[in-house]
Amino acid sequence: MLVLPPALVPFLEGGNSLLVGTCDAQRMPQVARAVGVKVSADRDKLTLFLPERSATRALCALGQVPLIAMTASEPPTHRTVQIKGKVLALRHPTDDEQAWVLSYPDRFADVVAYAGLARATVKRLHVWPARAVDIEITHVFDQTPGPQAGGPLDLQRFDVAHDKGGRA
Amino acid sequence: MSTLRLSSLMHCFQGVPPCNVATCSRDGVPNVTYLSQLFYVDAQHLAMSCQFFNKTRRNLDEHPYAAVQVYDPTCFEAYQIHLKFVRSETSGPLFDAMALRIDAIASHSGMAGVFKLLSADVCEVLFIERLEGFLEPNLAPPNAVADDPSTLRNELRALQVIGERICRAADLESLLDRTLESLDELLGVHNSLVLLSEDDARLVTIASHGYGEAGIGAEVALGQGLIGTVARERRSLRVSGMREGLRYGRAIRERVAEQGDEDQLRPEIPLPGLPNAGSQIALPLIVQDTLLGVLAAESKRVLGLDDWQEAVLQVVATQLAVAIDRLLEEEDEEEEEAEPIRPSMLGFSKAPPRRFTFYRNDDCVFVDGEYLIRNVPGKVLWKLLKAYQEQGRQEFSNRELRLDPWLGLPAVKDNLESRLILLRKRLLEKCPDVRLVPVRRGHFALELDRPIELLERDSA
C-alpha cells in the first residue's frame, strides 16, 4: 500500500492544474481536466472529480477499464507529480464534495493568474455536474520536466523542498 | 476526419496554456503529462517534441495512439485531438524548425546542450473534437477577427507604406529608425530592435524603438538566446509564451542542478529588452548568403505577435535587408571631395572637461569613468578626439577612416556607416556635448560643447 506524504496533500487539493488520462476497452487513450481532488485521511486513496460534460469520453473509458493516471502540476514552477491507481468507485459526489468542486475555479484562477489568463475567463470553467472517482493509489511519479521525469518521486525530498517554499 | 480543421487551431499550438497528452502502454495502463511543444506540420499531421526519452514516447512505441488536449489562449476553449504516431524525425526541416525554439529557450536558461530536442514525433490526426461544455456559454468563437477581410486590407496598406519608406531612405540611420517607427505606427509593434553583424561571432544593437536609448550598443553572440540562435541558424522564430518557455527551461535546470550535474550548466543570460516580454520574434536579415543582422520585436502580451504579424514582419525584414545592403554598397561608392573644414563656431560651456580614457588592450573607451564604446567604433572615436586635440580638426571623411590601417577595417563590406551610427548614438546617450554630425555624404563633423581631456592606458 502506498501512502502519500503530508506535503503532497495541499499540492493536490489546492488549485493546481489537474489532468486525467484513461484508456477504453480498445486501448484508445483519453485526456480530461479534473476539477478537484480530495485525499483520504490515511492518504492511501483519493477522490478526484471529473465534469460530466467535458470529460464524457474519459468517464466512459473508466467504466470499461478501471485504471487511471492523474497529473497535478503547479504551473508557475512546472513542479509536477503523476499518480496512478485503480478505480474503486465511480459515483455521484456528496453535498460536501459538490461544494468543494464548485470552489475549484477560484483556486485554479489564483494559480494560473501569473500567466495573464483573465480570471473571469478561467472562472467560466465548467465544473458541475461532476462525477466522483475513488482511487486506490498504486504509483507516484516525479513528472517535473527534466531527465528524471517519469521516475519515482522522492517523497522525502518533496517534503523538504515544499517546506523551503514550494519549489522542488 | 472531423469537420474541424487543424489549421483553425493554430492559436492552440503556441504553448500557452501548455498542451497535454494521454497515452497508454501495451498492457493498457494510461499515462498523462504536459507537452513542451506541439507543432503544426500540415493539415493532417502534428508533431510532438521529445526532449527526454520518457514514458509518453515508450508508450507510443508500444501502442501508437494518443489524445492531446489543447486550449485556445484567447478564450480558453478546449479541443481534444486524437492522434496516431507515424514516425520520429531526428533531422530535416521539421526537426530543425522545432529544435530552433527549444535551442532558444535552452540558451536563455543556460541549458544549451542539455535541454535539446531528441526527436520530432510526427502523428497523424485521426479526429478533432471541440470539448462542448468545457466552459460555460457566452464566449466568442475563436479567431473571429483574424478572418476579417478589412483587417487584411489594412495590413496590406501598412506593408505598402513601410515598403515605400524603406525604398526612400537616404541613409542607414534614417532607414533603421524610420522602419522601426513605422512598425509601431502601422502594425502596433511597439518594441523592436535591429542588430547588425559586427563580425562572424557577434551582433551589435544599432537601432531600437520602445526602449529609449539604453539598448544601443548591446551585443549578442551568435547562438546566444533567441536573437543569437536565429542569427546562427538563419531562420526566423516567433516564441509566444516566452515566460512559460523559460519557466519550463528553468524547471529542468533546477532538476539538472539537483542531480549534481551543474558543470553542464552555463550562466543564465538575461533576456534582452522588455523584462516581462510575453512574446518575441526574431528574423534574420539576409541578402544572398550574407547575414547582415537581425530584426527583433517583442510584446508584453503572450499573444502580442500573431501569425499575420510574423508574415508581415518577414516581408519587412526582406525589404530591410536589401535596403541595408544597398546603402552599405552606396556608402562604399559615393564619397564627395572634402571642402575646407568649418569648425564649430559654438563656444564651450563652463562645464568641466570631459575625460576620455582609451584602453589599448581591448580598444575600449570610457568617458568620465563610465563605459562608452569599444572595438572599431572605440578606435574611430579615439582617432577623432586625438585629431581634434592635436591638430584642431573637426571635419572628417569616411574615406580617411577606411584608409587608416590602425582601425583595422576590412577592405570590403566594412560596415563603417553602421559603426558610425552606433558611435553617434552612444555619444548622444553618454555625453551629448560631444557629437558626430553628418555634414554631407561621406563626411561628418565632430562638435564639442565642452573641452576634453584624453588619457591612454594599457589596461583597466
Task: Describe the structure in your own words.
- The complex is a heterodimer of chains A (168) and B (460).
- Chain A is of the alpha+beta class and 168 residues long.
- In chain A, 29% of the residues lie in helices and 35% in strands.
- The radius of gyration of chain A is 15 Å and the shape is globular.
- With 460 residues, chain B is α+β, with helices and mostly antiparallel strands.
- Helix content of chain B is 33%, strand content 29%.
- In chain B, the strands form 4 sheets. Chain B has a 7-stranded antiparallel sheet.
- In chain B, a hairpin with a 4-residue loop joins strand 14 and strand 15.
- The interface between A and B is large, with 50 and 53 residues.
Which short descriptors sum up this protein?
heterodimer, A: about 170 residues, alpha+beta, 8-stranded antiparallel beta sheet, 5 helices, 8 strands, disordered C terminus, B: about 450 residues, Pnp Oxidase, Chain A, Arc Repressor Mutant, subunit A, 7-stranded antiparallel beta sheet, 6-stranded antiparallel beta sheet, 10 helices
Q: Secondary-structure map with pairings?
A:
The complex is a heterodimer of chains A (about 170) and B (about 450).
Chain A: H1 8-13, E1 17-23, E2 29-33, E3 37-39, E4 45-51, H2 56-64, E5 67-74, E6 79-91, H3 95-112, H4 119-122, E7 130-142, E8 151-152, H5 155-165
Antiparallel strand pairs in A: 1-2, 1-5, 3-4, 4-7, 5-6, 6-7, 7-8
Chain B: E1 19-24, E2 30-35, E3 38-42, E4 45-50, H1 55-62, E5 65-71, E6 78-89, H2 93-108, E7 119-130, H3 149-168, H4 172-187, E8 191-197, E9 202-209, E10 219-221, H5 225-233, E11 237-240, H6 242-258, E12 279-287, E13 290-299, H7 307-333, E14 354-359, E15 364-367, E16 370-374, H8 375-391, E17 395-397, H9 398-403, H10 416-430, E18 434-440, E19 443-448, E20 452-457
Parallel strand pairs in B: 14-20
Antiparallel strand pairs in B: 1-2, 1-5, 3-4, 4-7, 5-6, 6-7, 8-9, 8-13, 9-10, 11-12, 12-13, 14-15, 15-16, 17-19, 18-19
